[in-house]
Amino acid sequence: MVKLTLRSAAMAVTAAAMSISLAACGSGGPSSASASSDSATMWGLTGGNQPVLQKSIDAWNKAHPDESIKLDFFANDAYKTKVRTAVGAGQGPTFIYGWGGGVLKSYVDAGQVADLSDFIASNPDVKSRYLPSVLKNGVIDGKTYALPNNNVQPVVLYFNKDVFDKIGAQAPKTWDDLMALVPKFKAAGIAPFSLGGQSKWPDLMWLEYLVERIGGPEVFANIAANKPNAWSDPAVKEALTKIQDLVDAGGFVNGFSSIAADSNADQALLYTGKAAMILQGGWIYQSMKTDAADFVKNGKLGFTAFPSVSGGKGDPANIVGNPSNFWSISSKATDSQKKAALDYVKSGMFTDADTQALIDSGAVPVTTGIESKLAASPDKDFLSYLYGMAKNAPTFTLSWDQALSPAQGDAMLANLDQIFLKKISPDQFVSTMNATIGK
Amino acid sequence: MSVSSASSRRVLERGPSGWLAAPALFFFLLFAIIPLAGVFFLSFTKWDGLGEIKLDGFSSWTTVLTDPVTGNALWVTAKIMFFSFIVQAPISLLLGVFTSASQKYRAVLAVLYFVPLLLSSAAVAIAYKALLDPNFGLGPGLGIPFLAQDWLGNSDLVLFVVVFVIAWQFVPFHTLIYQGGVRQIPASLYEAAQIDGAGRVQQFFAITLPQLKYTIITSSTLMVVGSLAYFDLVFVLTGGGPGYSTRLLPLHMYLTGFKANDMGAASALGVILVVIGLALALILQRLGGKNRNASQLEGA
């Protein structure tokens, strides 16, 4: 308790000191969301799945007024900072929304999230409803600390069928195909690839897939395991070189590093026909379904796996991206909050209505046995494709910025940005990143 | 009667009671001095914001001081400070002089110039981000190819874009300061100058500028020290990118603390920021404050 108080005080002090120079950068959280009030609290993300989650919680609260859950939503980037500060100060929500990986591990190391292994063991129904490849992302050192809560989000290569027809081309199967398409699209005045470079994380998808295709999943597994000089694997350098080749060839839309993915400007380039292809997460289907309904409905949106690289070791069926998002339960929550939380996880999540709502929004739930529901959806082509991709992938690598520690992730994104801008060479990237191993 | 006049005289001699400063001092202590001490302490620890705070000696300081990103952040901050000053000071001085005159149309213009000050930095940044988008922004929208540059993605251009947007937001504030300053200059000075045959330009350099000395110092202090605190606008506009090209010191501190979760290093950066800020404020005060007895008004 003393330790906790010291920590809260230190957090308050840091926050206050930083706020001297950061006057306008945030507001206090909803006061009712503190862990001391007795109903369970939940922080979700705005955007794609917000209405689905809201509906699920509304239904739960209506049926269980004695175990009601208070739900608040935050924007993605703001949430990531806010939840960590709040949890560190003992003011976090009962349900902690996460991505698994290195960030989850830091919560586990700090003893902030509850071990759910016993809960899973005594509720086999909960375990069996998930795709196993997704469930294992919430496991750290053999114990389950997080349970999937929404949809599979592998990174997919999307393309605009109209502009492909216009130049009479096929979707690329290999990296050489891809490079050969670049001059053709440029000659037709169409940018080959859209890219939300300002947001930095879309850049990472290129590195993740290229390293995966060239060197296989072991390359990143070594990096994530903090093995010394793991970034020196030749696959990393080759992938970075290929990225710079593509930049040199004019593969990315003009001004790509000014384009923010947060405002969906990168997708807009694809469906307005200004760009032919985009490498992005499975979640952008949901927003394109709303923002460009006709384009999606009329089957103009193509999608395919990331091309293979000749001589590469990686299985072309391997995928990268976010297996799902997860709920962890705060270990600092009161007993009644924990009970309400686990009861919701047991019988309030992935109800038939929830699953259907996710599918209707254009997403693939992480649950088993939904093939028939997917086949009945108007988006069945995409959804079945994504489901098969996730189910059959030998390896599903978590997005690197989530898998690594926050310090490594931050350095990686800033340095990769400079690779795309050709400000640094692949060798410089490798040596800078090797220096961050273990941080 | 005599008692009260005696006591009021005593008040006049000693000045008002020191207790009047107590509330301000209390809040200053609570929100500035104590957190500062806390940050100083944290800079000698290792803490990821979640786990325990561990004493760690000087390791945060060595990390921060040997990291090339810190040096780059200092350099970027210095550049922004310099260019912001060079751009903002003359514009706001001239606008302040212009809007201080009493004509109606000038008053209307003054109100218009004032508008950016009413907008929050985040709103300004989001608006400019949309306007400067190379594909959907102002350039392609109006069909002016010159405006369709890679404003926020070109490492060489982005610094000047940031300086411009900062100036757009803060020039109105400094204009207001100068406007007030100019209005305090006695009209008799100008009348005397006119009788002596001084032209407008001569009046500006011989009367307005010297009379504004302290206003210039105030405004410059706010500009220079304020540029150490540009955070929200740059954070929303560029996030410090591309690469590290607009990663200012305060932004670097924030990203180190709340993105990379290294509170020790972020606190060390915070201490550096405070020291630089105090030093700059002191120097600027010294520059103009030496000769306190020199009158600013007529007969000087």
Automatic annotation (TrEMBL), chain A:
Signal peptide from the UniProt entry: 1-23
Segments traversing the membrane: none
Record keywords: Signal
Pfam families for this protein: SBP_bac_1 (PF01547)
Keyword Signal attributed: yes
Entry-linked PROSITE patterns: PROKAR_LIPOPROTEIN
Source superkingdom: Bacteria
Protein name, per record: Extracellular solute-binding protein
UniProtKB/TrEMBL annotation, chain B:
Spans traversing the lipid bilayer: 20-44, 73-95, 107-128, 157-178, 222-244, 264-284
InterPro entries in UniProt: ABC_transporter_permease, MetI-like, MetI-like_sf
Name of the featured protein: Sugar ABC transporter permease
Membrane topology, as annotated: Multi-pass membrane protein
Keywords: Cell membrane, Membrane, Transmembrane, Transmembrane helix, Transport
Stated family: Belongs to the binding-protein-dependent transport system permease family.
Residues annotated as domain ABC transmembrane type-1: 74-284
Source organism, top-level taxon: Bacteria
Subcellular location: Cell membrane
GO cellular component entries: plasma membrane
One Pfam family per UniProt: BPD_transp_1
Single biological process term from Gene Ontology: transmembrane transport
